[in-house]
Amino acid sequence: MTHSARASVPHHWRASVVTALVLVLLALGLQGQDSNWDLRNYHLYTPSALLDGRFDGDIAAAQLQTWHNPTLDFPFALMVRAGLPGWVVALWLALPAFIAVLFALRLLDLLWPERRSVTRTALAGLTAVAGASVMPSIGTTFNDAFVAAGVMAALWWIVDSQGRRGAWATWVPAGLLAGLCAGLKLTGALYCVGFIGAALACGPMRGAPSRILALALGGVAGAALTAGPWALHLWQEHGNPLFPYFNEWFLSPDAMPQGHKDERFIPRGLDALLVPFHLLTDSSRFSEGKLSDPRLLLGLASLVVWWVAAWRNRRQDANFARVANALLVFALLSLAVWVKLYGIYRYLFALEALCSIAIIGVLSTYLPVRWGRAAMTVVAVLLVVGVNRPGWGRDRFSTPMISVHMPPVPSNSLVMLADDNPMAYAVAYLPKTVAAISIQNNFMTPSRCTGLQAAAEQRVRQQKGPIYVLRKASKDPVPEALRAYGLVGAGACLPARTSLDELELCPLGREPTAPICVAAAPGP
């Protein structure tokens, strides 16, 4: 690197920092504070229940997601419980998106250094931030941005290391970052497979064993740090370190012997190969809400163009060809794992960011300067206005971010949840002595006599104090699932006002009913 090139590095770091910061803050301001389904269901509940010591007393209050690793949610929960304004909490939640975009822009300058400029950085940042995965995730509790931050930092480190650092100094940190991400959010494992492919492709095969070993050591260490304590807790409580997932392997009696995997969006057959093309038109193929975005198709095509150019010039720059091999394999393998296991588009935050910079990088490098600038500008604008981004639920910024006013209930009460509506965030505001039990949701149902379902029935039948059902405000009768346990409506409902929903606590009475699970379940 020449003296002038070295002198320009701080300048381009500053351009990347400013671009990422301005665009992420702009996206956050335009969208408002988060109020998505997962926030209402488990992101606030699980850490709050652990902090309050009520987690083991409740049963499945946050449905299937009750047992997700809560590590990343503790700062969010503490800020909400402290009554901080929504914009302050949103800034914390937007931080990982800023880091992910920052490293994406630095990666752009490393991979296509010939025509880097402030204008190109700004256009690439705009292209990345406006994506159908990236933008709706900014400032949310989904934690996909945390995964993307680690993945993009790892990719930057791998590329920056070529010709400068050995295999261990390159791949141990990359593996550590990937492992940390996968340990914090299990879906981040899709990128771990991509990194394995990158390590195999990034150099001569004789050096592959040392690269893979270094990557594996870093990955295992990272996953052990972030997933280990929670996995140990789940193993001790339920006999499954990933509970309730992969229970067809671990066979915990507390859940059905199945994987509990959401397969609604997984493409089948030929559709699995046509995912980038399906993303060109509005559909709900890969999301609960409709979306369309050409970034994946254009980005993968750009990576292929770049790889061909690198392969032709491999004699002049072997490191360049190795990096091109690594990133193309990383992208294709990550996408293949995503197609096979998930199909949920927002999990592709990191891959979408990589595709965004690839589009701008290739346009700026392989077109004449004048045409390149025009093409980058036109494409960036089209990729901002020509995309349908799904909405996950946003509100105007408020102080505090979340407010819940539960009616007073006796300390020996039991609160039931009996439908799929996400209400566990309100459970977090119940007195610590009032347990919450869900008997009907996306994980529990009276017809399945798992250990947890039997425990829920036993708790209901042994309850001596008042029993209530928490539900969305409605004039409908109490849910039918409660009748299976001999619970019926017994009086006027009490309003439970929150900033997210109109809820109510309805008193329940008893009527004789036959046991469902308790008779066959082991004693306490």
Task: Describe the protein.
The chain folds into 2 domains: 346 residues, no CATH class; 117 residues, no CATH class. The protein is elongated and about 85 Å long. Strand 4, helix 18 and strand 5 form a beta-alpha-beta unit. The termini are far apart. The longest helix is centred in the middle third of the chain and has 31 residues. The strands form 2 sheets. Strands 3, 4, 5, 6, 7, 8 and 9 form a 7-stranded mixed β-sheet that branches. A two-stranded antiparallel sheet has the order 1-2. With 524 residues, the chain is an alpha+beta fold. The protein is built from 20 helices and 9 strands.
Short description:
The protein is of the alpha+beta class and 524 residues long. The chain has helices at residues 3-31, 37-43, 45-52, 73-81, 86-111, 118-129, 134-137, 144-161, 167-184, 189-201, 208-238, 247-250, 275-278, 295-312, 318-341, 349-366, 369-385, 424-427, 451-462, 480-483, and strands spanning 33-34, 394-395, 404-405, 414-417, 435-438, 467-472, 487-489, 494-498, 502-510. The strands form two sheets. Strands 3, 4, 5, 6, 7, 8 and 9 form a seven-stranded mixed beta sheet that branches. A two-stranded antiparallel sheet has the order 1-2.
Mean pLDDT, all residues: 94
Major pleated sheet: 7 strands, mixed
Structural class: alpha+beta
Radius of gyration: 25 Å
Gross morphology? elongated
Number of strands: 9
Q: Tally the helices: what do you get?
A: 20
| Percent of residues in beta strands | 5-15%
Taken in chain order, the helices and strands follow as: HEHHHHHHHHHHHHHHHHEEEHEHEHEEE
Helix content: 40-55%
**Straight-line distance between termini:** 70 Å
**Stretches where pLDDT falls below 50 for ≥5 residues?**
1-8, 520-524
Number of domains: 2
